[in-house]
TrEMBL record:
It comes from Poecilia formosa (Amazon molly). One of its GO terms (cellular component) is cytoplasm. SUPFAM superfamilies: P-loop containing nucleoside triphosphate hydrolases, RNI-like. InterPro entries: LRR_dom_sf, NACHT_NTPase, NLR, NLRP_HD2, NOD1/2_WH, P-loop_NTPase. Coiled coil: none annotated. It comes from the Eukaryota. Pfam families: NACHT, NLRC4_HD2, WHD_NOD2. One of its GO terms (molecular function) is ATP binding. This is NACHT domain-containing protein. Residues 95-228 form the NACHT domain.
Length: 707
C-alpha cells in the first residue's frame, strides 16, 4: 500500500506543482507555467454568515461582504490548510466543509496547493490518501457508475489499493472542486438510500450521497463552489467564504509576479494609490489581470512606438485596466508572434479585429442569457475556431478524462466576457439615439421603441437580471470614451462616421435620470460609476447639478464607490440637500475620499460607518471650513471616543451652520465632556444635541445640565 500511495503522491506532484498562467510565455505558446511555490499567495478565508444576494453581480456582493467583515475585523481568518482544523464549538475537526467564492477568487488554486502540500508531507498529514475530483471531469460521465469504478478509472495507479484504503475511510479526504461547473442537477431532497462502494448510480446521485454522508460517512470532504450554486448548509459542519487577498498579500503577489523588484514596487505603489484598481486587486485573478496590464507601463517598453506616452497616463479606471490587459495579450500572444514590440496599437487591433469581433458577439449575446460555458458548436456558430484561438481570451476548461473528445469552453473570468461584450457594443453603437436606448435597456430594462441597431432588437431582459449587468454597463461607458478618443482605431469600421455631440447628449441623458426617475440605491450608484468610467468633464458637468439628494442607506460601500461619488459630486456647484451613507461601512479611508465634498452637504448621515477618532478629526476640519454648509450631522454608532468628540466640540466653537448634532453610542466618556461647556457656550447655531448611550458619568451629566 505504501508503494502505491507513494506513486499516487508522485503523480499528484506532477500535476499540482505547476501553476498555469494565461497570456504569458513566448513564441507559439500563450501559456506558461510557474512552480506553485513561486507564484502561490495565500488567501483570506473566513467563516461564512450565509449572506448572499443572488440578484447581485458576484463582484459587488463580494465587495459589500468585505466592507462589512474587513472593517469590523470581526472574523476568524482561516488559512486554506486549516479548513479541516478542529472547531471551537466541538473541538472536533469537521467532516464536511463547503468553501464558496466568486469566479477568479482562487478556490481551485487553493485546492491545488492543499493537494501539493499533502503530497510533499507539509500538511493534511492525518490523511492516508486524498482524492481530488473536479466537476469539469465528472461532467464527462454519462452512465451510472460506482464510486469504486470512478476512482479506479480516475486514479488507475491506485486501483488495486482501493479495497485496503476503504477499510479505513476516516483517513480519506475527497476534494470536490467547482460545483458551479457541474452540468447535472443535484437533488438534495432525495430519500436517503443504503448505498455501498459498488452501488452503480448516475454521477449526480453519487455526489449527493457522498456529500450527505449516505456513502462513506466517515470520510472527509471539501467542496468548492461559487455563491450562486446551491449546496445546503445543513450538510456541512463548516462553511467558509473566500474573500481573496489582504493588502499585504497583494504586495506579496505583485512581488512574485515580476522578476524585477523595482518594477514590482512601482506597480504596487500605483495599485495602492489608485482606489479603483486597489479594490480590484483583492481578487487574485483581477490582480493577475492588473499585473499583466501594467507590463507595458513599467517594463521599459514605453519607449517603443506609440506606447511611449503610456507611462505618463497609466490606466485610471477599471475599463482602462481591462483594455490594457486585452491590448497586451493580443499584442504579445494573440498574433502568434507576428506582432513586434514596435507594432502600433491600431495595427495590433486591426490584425485581431475579426477575432475580437466574433468573440465580442459571442460574449454579448450569451451574457444577456447568463450563459458562461460554451460547446465547440456554440463557438463555431460565432465563427470562433478553438484550434486558432489563444487562451488569452478563451481557454479550454473541460479536459477529456477518457478518450472522448468532449470539450467545453469559458472566458477565463466572467469580467473578461463582460469586457469583450462591452467592446463589441462600443464598436457597434454609433448614434446618440442607439447609445441612450442601450443604456435605458441595460440600466432600467426599457425596450427600445425603434432601435436601428441589431444589438438592441428582440432582447427580452428579465428585470431581476439588471443588477448583474452593472459591471458590463460600466465597461461599455469606459470603452465608449476610449473609442471617442480614437484609441480603438483599427477596430472601428472606417465607414462609420463619429457623431458629434455624444458627450453632451449623454450628459442630458444622465441629467434626466437624476431629475425625473425614482431609482433603487444600487441603480443610482451604478450611474455614478458609469459617469466615472466615461470620465468626460463635459458630460459630468451637465449631469451632476441635478443630484440634489443621494441616499445610499444600508448599502455596503467600498473605497471605489466613495471615489465615484466624489468624482461626480465635485462637478456640482450646488449644496447637496442630503447625503445619506448610514450603515454603509465606509470607514476612515472612504470618508477621507469624500472629504472634499462633505462641507457642501446640508444633512450628512454617517451613522454606523466604522469611523473612529481620526474620522472625527477629519469631520472637525470640515466644520471649521469657511465654506461649511452642514446643518445636520449624524455620527451615531461610530467609535469616536473622548478624543474624537473633543475635536468636534472645538470645531463647533466657531461654526455657525450646524443646528443638529447626533452622537449617540459614540464612546463618549466623562473625559469627552471636558471642554463641552466652554466650546458650545460660544456656539450660536446648535439647537439639538443627542449623546444617548454614552457613559459620561456624574461629572458629565453635571456639565450637560450646566450647558
Amino acid at each position: 500500500l505504501q508503494a502505491q500511495i507513494s506513486m499516487h503522491k508522485t503523480t499528484l506532484l506532477t500535476r499540482m506543482e505547476k501553476l498555469k498562467c494565461y497570456s504569458e510565455g513566448s513564441g507559439e505558446t500563450s501559456n506558461s507555467t510557474f512552480h506553485i511555490e513561486i507564484r502561490y499567495t495565500d488567501l483570506f478565508v473566513t467563516e461564512d454568515n450565509n449572506f448572499t444576494d443572488s440578484s447581485q453581480h458576484e463582484y459587488f456582493d463580494l465587495a459589500s461582504r468585505r466592507a462589512r467583515i474587513y472593517v469590523h475585523q470581526s472574523c476568524q481568518r482561516i488559512r486554506p490548510s486549516q479548513l479541516l482544523s478542529p472547531q471551537e464549538t466541538t473541538g472536533q475537526p469537521p467532516k464536511r466543509v463547503k468553501v464558496k467564492g466568486i469566479a477568479g477568487i482562487g478556490k481551485s488554486v487553493a485546492v491545488q496547493r492543499l493537494v501539493y502540500e499533502w503530497a510533499i508531507g507539509k500538511s493534511m498529514c492525518e490523511f492516508t490518501c486524498i482524492f481530488d475530483l473536479s466537476f469539469r471531469e465528472l461532467n464527462l460521465i454519462e452512465v451510472p457508475i460506482s464510486l469504486l469504478e470512478l476512482l479506479g478509472e480516475r486514479f488507475r495507479h491506485l486501483k488495486d489499493a482501493l479495497p485496503d484504503l476503504f477499510a479505513a475511510p476516516g483517513s480519506l479526504l475527497f476534494i470536490l472542486d467547482g460545483l458551479d461547473e457541474f452540468r447535472f442537477s443535484l437533488d438534495w431532497k432525495s430519500r436517503d438510500k443504503n448505498i455501498g462502494l459498488k452501488s452503480k448510480l448516475p454521477v449526480s446521485e453519487l455526489i449527493v450521497a457522498l456529500i450527505k454522508g449516505n456513502l462513506l460517512p466517515e470520510a472527509s470532504i471539501i467542496l468548492t463552489t461559487r455563491p450562486s450554486t446551491e449546496a445546503p448548509k445543513r450538510f456541512f459542519q463548516r462553511c467558509c467564504v473566500v474573500l481573496g487577498f489582504e493588502e499585504n498579500q497583494v504586495k506579496e503577489y505583485t512581488t512574485k509576479f515580476y522578476k524585477d523588484r523595482k518594477v514590482a514596487e512601482k506597480v504596487y505603489d500605483y495599485i495602492s494609490n489608485n482606489d479603483s484598481i486597489f479594490v480590484l486587486s483583492f481578487i487574485p485573478l483581477y490582480c493577475y489581470i492588473i499585473c499583466t496590464a501594467m507590463l507595458e507601463f513599467f517594463l521599459g517598453s514605453q519607449d517603443v512606438g506609440d506606447f511611449k506616452s503610456l507611462e505618463l497616463s497609466p490606466p485610471r479606471t477599471v475599463s482602462e485596466v481591462y483594455f490594457c490587459y486585452l491590448l497586451t495579450t493580443v499584442k504579445h500572444h494573440g498574433l502568434r508572434a507576428s506582432g513586434e514590440r514596435s507594432t502600433s496599437r491600431s495595427e495590433v487591433l486591426s490584425q485581431a479585429k475579426q477575432q475580437l469581433t466574433n468573440l465580442g458577439k459571442l460574449a454579448y449575446e450569451n451574457l444577456l442569457q447568463r450563459k458562461i460555458m460554451f460547446s465547440r458548436k456554440d463557438l463555431e456558430n460565432y465563427s470562433v475556431t478553438p484550434a486558432n484561438i489563444q487562451s488569452t481570451f478563451l481557454c479550454q476548461i473541460l479536459h477529456p478524462v477518457k478518450e472522448e473528445a468532449v470539450e467545453m469552453f469559458s472566458f477565463i473570468h466572467l469580467t473578461v466576457q463582460e469586457h469583450l461584450a462591452a467592446l463589441y457594443c462600443a464598436l457597434n453603437l454609433f448614434s446618440q439615439e442607439d447609445i441612450t436606448q442601450a443604456l435605458n435597456l441595460w440600466c432600467f430594462g426599457l425596450q427600445p421603441p425603434s432601435a436601428s441597431s441589431t444589438l438592441l432588437k428582440q432582447i427580452d431582459l428579465n428585470m431581476d437580471m439588471l443588477d448583474s449587468l452593472q459591471m458590463f454597463t460600466r465597461f461599455f461607458m469606459g470603452l465608449l470614451r476610449t473609442r471617442l478618443e480614437k484609441q480603438l482605431d483599427g477596430l472601428v469600421d472606417p465607414s462609420q462616421q463619429e457623431e458629434n455631440g455624444i458627450p453632451n447628449g449623454l450628459g442630458l441623458w444622465f441629467q434626466d435620470q437624476f431629475k425625473h426617475r425614482e431609482m433603487k440605491n444600487e441603480t443610482a450608484l451604478n450611474l455614478l460609476h458609469c459617469l466615472m468610467e466615461f470620465h468626460t468633464n463635459e458630460t459630468t458637468t451637465i449631469a451632476a447639478p441635478e443630484i440634489k439628494k443621494l441616499n445610499l442607506f444600508k448599502m455596503k460601500l467600498n473605497i471605489v464607490d466613495c471615489a465615484a461619488m466624489h468624482y461626480v459630486l465635485k462637478f456640482s456647484p450646488h449644496t447637496l440637500q442630503e447625503l445619506n451613507l448610514g450603515y454603509s461601512n465606509i470607514g476612515n479611508r472612504g470618508l477621507n475620499r469624500l472629504r472634499p465634498i462633505l462641507h457642501r452637504c446640508e444633512s450628512l448621515y454617517l451613522r454606523y460607518n466604522c469611523l473612529d477618532w481620526q474620522a472625527a478629526i477629519l469631520e472637525s476640519a470640515v466644520l471649521k471650513s469657511n465654506e461649511c454648509q452642514v446643518r445636520k450631522l449624524f455620527m451615531c454608532g461610530n467609535n469616536l471616543g473622548p478624543e474624537g468628540v473633543n475635536e468636534l466640540w472645538t470645531a463647533l466653537e466657531n461654526n455657525t451652520t450646524v443646528e443638529e448634532l447626533y452622537l449617540d453610542i459614540t464612546g463618549i466618556t466623562e473625559k469627552g465632556t471636558e471642554n463641552i461647556v466652554n466650546c458650545l457656550s460660544k456656539n450660536t447655531s446648535l439647537k439639538i444635541l443627542t449623546i444617548v448611550g454614552n457613559d459620561i458619568g456624574e461629572v458629565g451629566r453635571k456639565r450637560l445640565r450646566e450647558l
